[in-house]
Amino acid sequence: MLTIRSVDPKGIKTDLMLVIVCEDSVLYGNQTIKDLTGRAKKYPEFAGKSGQDLMLYSPGDLKARRVMFTGVGKSAELD
């Protein structure tokens, strides 16, 4: 079953956390997600462009086993 929630990421024990990323703006106010997104964007193969994905395993002090970042392109182009 798929469950979608907006909560403090440090308190969620899950196999996979999905983070949506724009290439030109920050979508989240949560500092943990901002830090993780910044870490993901340091990889040369991920900039938040539409269609880009990046998986991090054992990401820091989170209870999530993996965090998947999915790029959606520029914020002005989102519906």
Walk me through the structure:
By secondary structure, this protein is an alpha+beta fold. It is built from one helix and three strands; from the N terminus they run βαββ. Strands 1-3-2 form a three-stranded mixed sheet, with helices on one face. A hairpin with an 8-residue loop joins strand 2 (53-57) and strand 3 (66-71).
Strand content: 15-25%
As residue ranges, the low-confidence spans are none
Proportion of helical residues? 10-25%
How would you characterize the largest beta sheet?
3 strands, mixed
- Structural class based on helices, strands and sheet pairing: alpha+beta
Which strand order does the major sheet show?
1-3-2
Write the SSE topology.
Elements: E1 16-21, H1 31-41, E2 53-57, E3 66-71
Parallel strand pairs: 1-3
Antiparallel strand pairs: 2-3
Distinctive features:
single chain; 79 residues; alpha+beta; three-stranded mixed β-sheet; 14% helix; 22% strand
How do you describe this structure in short?
The protein is α+β, with helices and mostly antiparallel strands and 79 residues long. It is built from one helix and three strands; from the N terminus they run βαββ.
